[in-house]
């Protein structure tokens, strides 16, 4: 037995010693505690993640290409913007041992609007220290909400010269500024935090009209601040009125009772309005929520059950929640229909009528309708929803001519891709590798979903970082594409009409109509994605006479109104369209634009009664008198028969 023990000991010593051949001994490595792993004195091969795969080294600039598995790193399948991840989801690298740090969420927390788990205490020097309905400031939440503000463009002050047409019984005069308005002090404070230094015309009129308790139909050009125009006065009134018993968080056995409802046609627009509402509802008892299709309804229900005073929703998802008995509209004080004409164009009229007329919504609510265009048939439908309303139309002349340079190019279908490559190759933000790719974004519009995917793949093959968005993409894919575009990771976005309405994407400097739409209103909305809030923008359209004959007349009129250069060949195309108009009747655009319209719509009540009062609501007050056409600060009366309309 002693001999055996000696042999085993000798064998152990020989195995642990070098074998003289230059190879490492085949002995099991010593156990290394987790907190010592990765140190310099540990013999783990560099770059190893302990799982037999090479991970990306983040500390130096000589990292190798990351692998395609695990949680440690990932690679964009398009080959752009490879980005490292930490050694696990939500792992805080600064915490010893890699303990996961819980992501901060404005929805997590206690009372109503939610906050971080850390409850901050009010500072006695806080201007709202004595108001029990206002919570303490939260620096982390302020950074989250207001950290990346988009500054207004150099032409923002020129909005003062935009003409505004107002009609209605005793229409309130506009405010001069947010600070001078009668809005709640908390609303004014949040406006400052959001970086709103000047009020746009639609905001000046809307704040005054909504504060006065009037219904409103507002027609304003894209990028004019319509979202803040209805959010600010509504939330200000909520702050002043204070919380009610029904505003407390609910449970699964009770119905959600919002007091403000905002309907939007698309999921993207609903999310955008929701994000803006969180900025203006900061520190208040009002908790915004959003509900839209394409995602599990259970997740949205859980969020609603924690309390919802302001609900942003698409019509289809809201009807679903109502039919499930989870949402009641009995407490609604404010109803907003944003992009109302688009909702009806998309076939949402039955759902809207069910929500407004057949549900338990109070009839004494305040109703607001906003859009960039209000065709006459839409206004006729609006009379069923609005009562003694004030109509405002903010002119496009000025903002379009000063901020957006429109170029129309004659391009055949076979040449479109090569011309687009030439445009992108000269783009400063894409071709010259701008230090801030998010500062120069290009939005390309096509007509079909298949065309969007094909063009996106083509651009990627040509080494242009691009992504696409259309109706067949899942909600997660659409949100990821928009976030990638906003951040500049993919500064080219190919989109169908799903992104044409209402979306406010900062820093879009160029809009390309790869396929021109058949409706001139859609063209107006598309080019409105650039030149927003006074910023300078450029719009390029590929024109084909065979395909775009129906809108050539109205396209020329838009260029004339905006003082844009009109190519000679385009005037020739217009003459040809005029010659054949008695047969085709043109496109689906606004028929009487030729009278020199300056606004996106005209109050139909004026057409019914001329210079006299007209009763557009049957037994309701007409609102047809007291019409004035003015620029901000100049409320001079004008003839009821304006210089023309787009009808």
From TrEMBL:
<protein>
    <recommendedName>
        <fullName>ATP-dependent RNA helicase DED1</fullName>
        <ecNumber>3.6.4.13</ecNumber>
    </recommendedName>
</protein>
<dbReference type="GO" id="GO:0016787">
    <property type="term" value="F:hydrolase activity"/>
</dbReference>
<dbReference type="InterPro" id="IPR011545">
    <property type="entry name" value="DEAD/DEAH_box_helicase_dom"/>
</dbReference>
<feature type="domain" description="Helicase C-terminal">
    <location>
        <begin position="433"/>
        <end position="574"/>
    </location>
</feature>
<dbReference type="InterPro" id="IPR001650">
    <property type="entry name" value="Helicase_C-like"/>
</dbReference>
<keyword id="KW-0378">Hydrolase</keyword>
<keyword id="KW-0347">Helicase</keyword>
<feature type="region of interest" description="Disordered">
    <location>
        <begin position="1"/>
        <end position="133"/>
    </location>
</feature>
<dbReference type="InterPro" id="IPR014001">
    <property type="entry name" value="Helicase_ATP-bd"/>
</dbReference>
<feature type="domain" description="Helicase ATP-binding">
    <location>
        <begin position="207"/>
        <end position="392"/>
    </location>
</feature>
<dbReference type="GO" id="GO:0005524">
    <property type="term" value="F:ATP binding"/>
</dbReference>
<comment type="function">
    <text>ATP-binding RNA helicase involved in translation initiation. Remodels RNA in response to ADP and ATP concentrations by facilitating disruption, but also formation of RNA duplexes.</text>
</comment>
<keyword id="KW-0547">Nucleotide-binding</keyword>
<feature type="compositionally biased region" description="Low complexity">
    <location>
        <begin position="609"/>
        <end position="647"/>
    </location>
</feature>
<dbReference type="InterPro" id="IPR027417">
    <property type="entry name" value="P-loop_NTPase"/>
</dbReference>
<dbReference type="Pfam" id="PF00271">
    <property type="entry name" value="Helicase_C"/>
</dbReference>
<keyword id="KW-0067">ATP-binding</keyword>
<dbReference type="GO" id="GO:0005634">
    <property type="term" value="C:nucleus"/>
</dbReference>
<dbReference type="InterPro" id="IPR000629">
    <property type="entry name" value="RNA-helicase_DEAD-box_CS"/>
</dbReference>
<feature type="region of interest" description="Disordered">
    <location>
        <begin position="580"/>
        <end position="647"/>
    </location>
</feature>
<dbReference type="Pfam" id="PF00270">
    <property type="entry name" value="DEAD"/>
</dbReference>
<dbReference type="GO" id="GO:0003729">
    <property type="term" value="F:mRNA binding"/>
</dbReference>
<feature type="compositionally biased region" description="Basic and acidic residues">
    <location>
        <begin position="116"/>
        <end position="133"/>
    </location>
</feature>
<comment type="similarity">
    <text>Belongs to the DEAD box helicase family.</text>
</comment>
<dbReference type="GO" id="GO:0003724">
    <property type="term" value="F:RNA helicase activity"/>
</dbReference>
